Amino acid sequence: MQIAVTTPTGNVGRHVVSALARAGVRPRVLVRDPGRLAPGIRGEVDAVKVDQYDADTVVAATRGIDALYWVDPSTGGEDPLADYTRATTSVVRAVTENRIGRVVFQSSVGAEKRRGAGEIDGLAHTEKALDDTGVDVTHLRCGYFFTNLELQLDAVRAGLLRVVLPLDQPMAWVAPRDIAEVAACRLLSLAWSGRCVQAVHGPADLSWRQVAGILTAATGRRIGVERITDDAMRAQLREAGMPDGMVEAVLGMSTGLRENFVPEQPRTVRTTTPTTLAAWAYDHLRHRLQDAS
Q: What is the spatial distance between Cα 167 and Cα 209, in angstroms, rounded to a whole number?
């Protein structure tokens, strides 16, 4: 089986590549900058320099591929949903023109809404486009990444996280490495076909108030959390350098799932993964904070 992996240096993709290598597979990795691959993995993969927004290069890079792990590339532009549309065009052309039989797509909890969830709407568009090709596809509906906290190191160090969700509203939190394990299993398994949706919910639904307590215990730093207004969050994101279109897309991922949203896939043994936030924070976030001190 010839397997291709996109975003192989990302929070999830790098673990997918390692898992496939351990399984005896030499994956083809589609990467914008091959130099960013970890030195130890370079001899275990076939690297192809690819811009995922360039459909022609994606098609060329995926010839002869049987299964594809596709992640829409991160976007920081003024119109992120247009960027998702460009990436979707690339994967649809690759699947169709190269007759790729199986795709595992990294989506998100909230994509089932189809619209009204900010940047997640772009993932919903990709889901639907892949469905329309008739390919065997598994959509991984992932919870909130633990690693998103690394984007807030200054706030964690200052001891105060600011969010727009109700502080006691629970949501799924998940370790990227656990997502990669599910993805690799799906890529290697021949036991499924058709359209599948596989939620990856992590070990427990957590509120931001619970998260603050877990981080305090794991890092030894007193960390609080407060709810701020949507406009205050907009100002915070603009101060971080985001253009207005991206600000609204990022904010929408929270506001769109804030009221009366229940994930389409319930928490079951199939959607629950093992790594806890406490373990991840102790192993990773604590050290990041020490390194940054």
A: 5
